[in-house]
Amino acid sequence: MATATTADMPDTKTAPVLVRERRSPRVMQKDFCLEYGGFAHNVWSATLAEEFTLEDALKEDFWAHVSLGRERSIRPDDIIQVRSRDHTLFAELYVRDSGPAYARVELLRVKEWGQRVPVDADAPLTIRWNLGLRKHEVQRKSDGVVMFTAALKEDAAAWLADHVRAMSVAA
To answer: Residue 47 carries which DSSP code?
Structure first.
């Protein structure tokens, strides 16, 4: 058995110093989260009206009415999925910065199918979107009778052009 001497005893006048090991750097909890259902970022969906183009959607003020600079509005790191009503365009935009009445977005990816179909204003028929059926309808302007329905606007426009051509040949 070893005996302790006064030389081996620590000085009681000074407090003991605890030496901690240095840990390797790690991400802080506030900077790390599991992405699910809008916790880390939101995914928004926007349908472009026929008068708007993708270039319009890339402008900061295009998102002014939905970028309020508070909760439940567009914020940085959000994704906006943009679709055209006639199913010819799909794009994803990344929100780099936002605040009251603006959102700075960058184009992530874009896919276009066919051409946007212009409708002749003088034609006796018109193409309209039926929300309940989720299809495009060719409708006669004079009495509103639906002549044809199609999922794609380009199919409805092709039918309309064929029908107008057939009507002009028969006359």
So the answer is: E
Residues 43 and 103 in one domain: yes
Overall number of domains in the chain: 2
- Is this model's pTM higher than 0.70 or not? no
Query: pLDDT for 46-68, tens place per residue?
Result: 888 777 788 888 988 888 777 77
Question: Is 45 in the same domain as 101?
Answer: yes
The number of beta carbons lying within 10 Å of the beta carbon of residue 5 is 7
| pLDDT at residue number 84 | 82
Q: Which amino acid is at 115?
A: Q
- Consecutive H or E run containing 160: helix 153-170
Q: CB burial class (10 A; 0-12, 13-18, 19+) of residue 37?
A: exposed
